Amino acid sequence: MMNDSNSTELSNGESIVDVGEEQLARVYAKAFLAATESLDQQSLLEELDSLVTDVLEKFADFRYYLTTDFLSHDERVTLIDGVFGGRASEPVMNLLKVLSQNRRMGMLAVVARAARKMYGELQGRHEVRVFVPQPLSADLQQGLRDALHARLGVESDFRLQVKPELIGGMVVQVGDTVFDGSVRSTLERTRQQMVVKAVDAIESQPEKFVIQGE
After folding, report:
1. In what order do the strands lie in the sheet with 156-162?
2. Spatial CA neighbour of 22 closest among 116, 128, 96, 111
3. Can you give the pLDDT at residue 193?
4. What is the pTM of this model?
């Protein structure tokens, strides 16, 4: 795979660097897919997804130890071998160790998502990610799949994720395009409109907003 040890830390809630996090994630993802071209890539991608959702997202302490700079690469490799050795496949273990070597373990979720997206593109499919405030029944999920397929006219990898902070509505992401129909987004737009109207009012009639002296 690759080595980018000269790069600085990335953004996405972290810090800014010379390249975008998504771009760098695609580099790792491309290398991972190239190295596993003759293997069952669908199963490997499912393994990566499970590692992210069932391990890293659920066990914050373990995620901290994998990503903290207080541990050296050798110490992280010992941790990786101890926890995943005999459980994870060799390609996934190799990816973890490359990310550790380059101090990019915090990017694992982004790399996994980029790999799945690139794999889908190679198969002529588009990833559709749907964020909803609460779980949907199987029937509602199927109805949503059918509606999106009819609207988009393309085969897609449908992925549903629950985000309670959305309050209501949903957010649909097709590739790099986001359609935000959430209540939270609507409330934020309403708040911004109110601020803009207040500023316009102050600028157009400033005398009404000046406290007159006695």
Report:
1. 156-162, 126-132, 171-174, 177-180
2. 111
3. 63
4. 0.57
